[in-house]
Amino acid sequence: MDIAVLVKQVPDTYSERKLKEGDWTLDREAADAVIDEIDSKGVELALQLTDSHGGQVTVVTMGPARATETLRKALAMGAHKAVHITDEAFAGSDAMQTSAALAAALRPLGVDLIITGNESTDGRTASMPAMLAERLGLPAVTSVVSVEIEGASLRAERVVEGGAAKVSAPLPAVISVNEKIGEPRYPNFKGIMAAKSKPVSTLSAADLGLDPAGLGLANAYCQVVAGAERPHKSAGEKISDDGSGGNLVAQYLVAQRLI
Amino acid sequence: MSDIAEVIVLVEHADGKLKKLTTELLAAAAAIGSPSAVVVGELGSAAALSDQLAEAGAAKIYAAESAGSANQLLTPQVAALAAAAAAAGSPAAILLAATFDGREIAGRLAIRLDSGLLADAVAIAERDGRVVATQSVFGGAYTTEYVVTHGIPVISVRGNAIEGAAPAVSGPAVVALQVSVDPAITPTVTEWLPEAVGDRPELGGAKVVVSGGRGVGSADNFHVVEELADVLGGAVGASRAAVDSGYYPHQFQVGQTGTTVSPQLYIALGISGAIQHRAGMQTSKTIIAVNKDADAPIFEVADFGVVGDLFAVAPQLAAAAKARKN
Ligand SMILES: Cc1cc2nc3c(=O)[nH]c(=O)nc-3n(C[C@H](O)[C@H](O)[C@H](O)COP(=O)(O)OP(=O)(O)OC[C@H]3O[C@@H](n4cnc5c(N)ncnc54)[C@H](O)[C@@H]3O)c2cc1C
Ligand SMILES: Nc1ncnc2c1ncn2[C@@H]1O[C@H](COP(=O)(O)O)[C@@H](O)[C@H]1O
Hints:
The complex is a heterodimer. Chain A is an alpha/beta fold. Chain A is built from six helices and 13 strands.
């Protein structure tokens, strides 16, 4: 079975992430750019499924030129080929526009399964898998912690707020992975070397047949009207426990009228 | 005035009861228009909920009922909201819960209605005839306000963020919706695996949260965290390291990829305070940290920090708090 995995390059959550004052879009210079951890878990799942069922894994990203680093990372893990959707005209796209471009790139791939993260660490809309499923006319099974393929259908366990459920759906389908699905493999030296010669195709808005009148920040379906940075919280009192630490916390809470 | 625009709210319910978040959504809806509640469920579910919905301020109820809809995953909700939007003419907005399910429904719906989507709003207001949604970005480091400029705003709203209540309504009109679901795009639930519901307050809305990290050391030791939480009437939380080590169930994870909490009091026991943990708790009113390592980053956001062993400090605090209560 052939699988497409969506991978997004995001600012490293270990660093201080920033928005740009004014248009309040992501400040890509402020933090290191990395593959979103959740998407490396999607790549891992795809590799496990193709290991047991055969087929190829194509990783797909939409992002600026440097997002190729993220594709190379996924190729080094073992993905077979990559698609990079990139165009100056895409800058400032919102989820509606991004989903249109991703769907246009996914349609001709004709894969049996599309895997995404359940929530990106920067956008956090957790809507992309459903948007793609709707555009492509497919079922969406989101936030899964395990998946099995049985002929032309999939069985999965999904975990969301309030509980879990066992679910089945026909293939082709879109699934999104939950962070509890397990740890991704690390690329080894051989994988990193092999990734350098794996095919990466680059697609522009024109290649995807997208109407230029609908692209970019100016044509987004939502617009920012205001933004503000919250003042940093500063550290308060810090004591070393000399045997009365718990009692001192209690006194502090009494003074704050919290107990 | 009859020309106040409808604001469509997707109702979350279980066992014939409204979820608290639905009352919050109705309150948000009442502030910008006339709340219309969409009930998706088995036959008879709208009637069972109508008194509660009236009390919570729903001026109109759209009922999308069908046998077996409970095991069809989320496409009945999408179809019902689309039908309600068509019936309402030009609603001011469609509001859903910012849960995984709510955001999935919102994504499909936005495409179906060719409309702008805003996720995880913490406030909603009407300004100059436009619906403005406030979002809290990077764990509260930034606040942004957005408007939808295309179609009907589809907005998911964070739990425990909206305060106040909508005025009660008497005898809301009930409108039945005809909804059809395409089986080709609809997953089927074969088994529900509900979470055990404990006696403690719900994590996202608790006034006090006591969280344990890897420093707690084992699942057994977590009773130290639970005992302090119980004395304070609080919820128990955990860091990702504690969850991934199997000390505590995943639904209690606080942080970037867990629940965002903003209680009056947050107590971190044996948690280093990684940036992704802080993203889920740094807007708490008062933060107390107990950690053996004086350089742990959690102290940077703590109002009161104790460098020490949590197994000494937490029980002593619990005993002092208990003595004060009695
Ligand atoms: C994409 C992404 C998302 C993430 N999301 C989350 C998230 O949602 N939530 C989250 O929590 N983390 C998240 N993390 C993980 C985060 O980076 C940290 O790994 C995690 O928060 C560490 O948990 P901890 O503080 O319990 O463990 P550690 O960092 O190992 O800290 C344990 C602390 O306990 C102290 N300690 C040990 N014994 C004692 C004792 N007896 N008494 C007192 N103190 C003691 C130690 O000094 C240490 O500071 C995420 C990471 C990534 C990459
Ligand atoms: N620009 C993008 N390129 C590739 N994948 C994306 C992009 N945006 C979102 N995704 C995928 O959609 C998932 C959910 O993202 P989101 O809806 O932003 O929370 C991510 O984990 C990715 O797998």
